[in-house]
Amino acid sequence: MTAARTDPPLTGDERTTLRAYLDFHRATLEAKCAGLTHDQLRARSSPPSSLSLLGLVRHLAEVERVWFRRAIAGEDLGLVWSADGDFQVAYDAAEADVDEAFAAWRAEVEHARRIEREAPSLDVTGVRPRTGAVVSLRLVLLHLIHEYARHNGHADFLREAIDGTTGA
Q: How far from the centroid of its chain's Cα atoms is residue 35's Cα?
């Protein structure tokens, strides 16, 4: 598997570094999914878990949407796959449309990039929808890096179980 990723810079200002690490992790998820069939992307890790690579893509679309569009930009919108705000719905990708999932994820990533670029500083704040807590753009970037890194670990195991591919 070849990963079309750019390594984050070894030096640079805080914003450039955070942006680069988040994009590196986004590209890692995409690389873990590359070259697989729709059925392979839907393959569950181990029952009863519904975790799959496609489920991770759907979940991370929700995460991007909530933290950037709802929290930082203050947009009043629901989740992509759950009308009642249940993040777990995204994980169940057994019948999910692969193209729709990737399109939604890519769209949310582009919204997130735009919101981050347009923010005058990392000190811009918004409100976390679930708790009402005030959060900074800096925290959101760090949280997304953490979220992707954790789920990319899951993606490592999922991909290896599907076809033996390791690394990325």
A: 19
- Given a cut of 70, the residues of the chain with pLDDT beneath it are 1-3, 168
Tokens matching residue 133: 């807590």
Is residue 126 helix, strand or coil? strand
Report d(CA 120, CA 74) in Å as an integer. Answer: 16
Question: DSSP per residue over 90-116, as a string?
Answer: HH--TT--HHHHHHHHHHHHHHHHHHH
Report the distance separating Cα 116 and Cα 48, nearest Å: 37
Q: Is the dihedral of CA 117, 122, 126, 131 positive or negative?
A: positive
Global confidence as pTM: 0.93
Residue 143 structure tokens: 């949280």
